């Protein structure tokens, strides 16, 4: 038979012995998390006032937040009455297994450190990496957050970013805009070049130096292809690309210059 009085007494004694500690630990955890949030907010504002690099600012913020939360959890565990020497021993024993399981995470952390140190890109840059193109919104300790042109959020592990190849479109302040326009074999090449140049000269965003480059690049199957290369501010790249493409079509139509497109002749034979 179970002695319910002894069981109840034991539960009461344990509640008296540990209940207050557990309650105090919970209160400490809640207050500690609030203090960490307020402290990190103050630190971020201070770094912004001191004009700390945005890349370093976001990385340090996430790193400090993680370290402070780990210290808080250890403090709460010790308040409950768990022997810290035993806890540390268990943590050390599990460290190897956890480290092997989280080898990718450790690689991402190391990648984050490499990104902050060598700065292949920074917050606000437009990059092409791991098959994604977007603006760098945040560099965290394990991941980098991109915002794509169609407003998608992409999270890329730092390990791949630090070891793989990437294209940074924001490193230089200027960019070259390339076009290819096809004209018919019966059209006048010199006239087409003149029309192209006149369209380019109407856009003040396009640099005069280096001067625009126009040349025949290929004798295609159905068209003579002209390559056009102009220089402009990096921020004007897409505006110039779309505007010039539209203007060129209208100018060719006005000047009677044809834009060939592939055609297919279908011959039908009647079987007798």
Model description:
Helices cover 53% and strands 19% of the residues. It contains 7 helices and 8 strands. The chain is elongated and about 105 Å long. The model has no long low-confidence stretch (mean pLDDT 82).
Q: What strand line-up does the widest sheet have?
A: 4-3-2-1-5
* Shape field: elongated
Largest sheet: 5 strands, antiparallel
Quote the distance from N terminus to C terminus.
104 Å
Whole-number average pLDDT? 82
| SSE order, one letter for each helix or strand | HHHHEEEEHEEHEEH
Number of helices: 7
How are the secondary structure elements laid out?
Layout: H1 4-49, H2 54-80, H3 84-101, H4 103-118, E1 126-129, E2 132-139, E3 143-147, E4 153-157, H5 158-163, E5 166-168, E6 174-183, H6 189-201, E7 213-219, E8 224-233, H7 237-255
Antiparallel strand pairs: 1-2, 1-5, 2-3, 3-4, 6-8, 7-8
Q: Which tags fit this structure?
A:
Helix Hairpins; three-stranded antiparallel beta sheet; alpha+beta; about 270 residues; single chain; Alpha-Beta Plaits; five-stranded antiparallel beta sheet; SH3 type barrels; 3 domains
Quick structural overview:
By secondary structure, the protein is of the alpha+beta class. The chain has helices at 4-49, 54-80, 84-101, 103-118, 158-163, 189-201, 237-255; strands at residues 126-129, 132-139, 143-147, 153-157, 166-168, 174-183, 213-219, 224-233.
């Amino acid at each position: 038979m179970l002695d319910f009085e002894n069981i109840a007494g034991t539960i009461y004694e344990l509640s008296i012995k540990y209940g207050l500690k557990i309650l105090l630990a919970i209160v400490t955890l809640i207050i500690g998390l609030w203090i960490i949030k307020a402290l990190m907010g103050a630190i971020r504002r201070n770094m912004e006032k001191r004009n700390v690099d945005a890349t370093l600012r976001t990385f340090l913020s996430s790193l400090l937040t993680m370290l402070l939360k780990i210290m808080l959890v250890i403090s709460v565990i010790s308040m409950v009455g768990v022997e810290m020497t035993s806890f540390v021993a268990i943590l050390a024993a599990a460290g190897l297994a956890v480290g092997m399981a989280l080898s990718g995470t450790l690689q991402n952390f190391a990648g984050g450190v490499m990104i902050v140190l060598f700065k292949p890109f920074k917050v606000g840059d437009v990059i092409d990496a791991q098959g994604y193109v977007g603006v760098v919104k945040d560099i965290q300790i394990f991941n980098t957050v991109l915002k794509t042109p169609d407003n998608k959020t992409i999270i890329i592990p730092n390990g791949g970013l630090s070891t793989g190849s990437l294209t940074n479109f924001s490193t230089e302040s200027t960019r070259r805009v390339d076009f290819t326009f096809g004209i018919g074999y019966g059209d006048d090449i010199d006239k087409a070049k003149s029309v192209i140049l006149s369209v380019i000269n109407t856009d003040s965003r396009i640099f005069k130096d280096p001067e625009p480059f126009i040349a025949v690049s290929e004798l295609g199957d159905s068209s003579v292809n002209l390559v056009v290369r102009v220089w402009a501010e990096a921020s004007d790249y897409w505006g110039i690309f779309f505007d010039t493409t539209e203007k060129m079509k209208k100018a060719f139509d006005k000047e009677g210059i044809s834009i060939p497109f592939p055609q297919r002749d279908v011959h039908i034979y009647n079987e007798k």
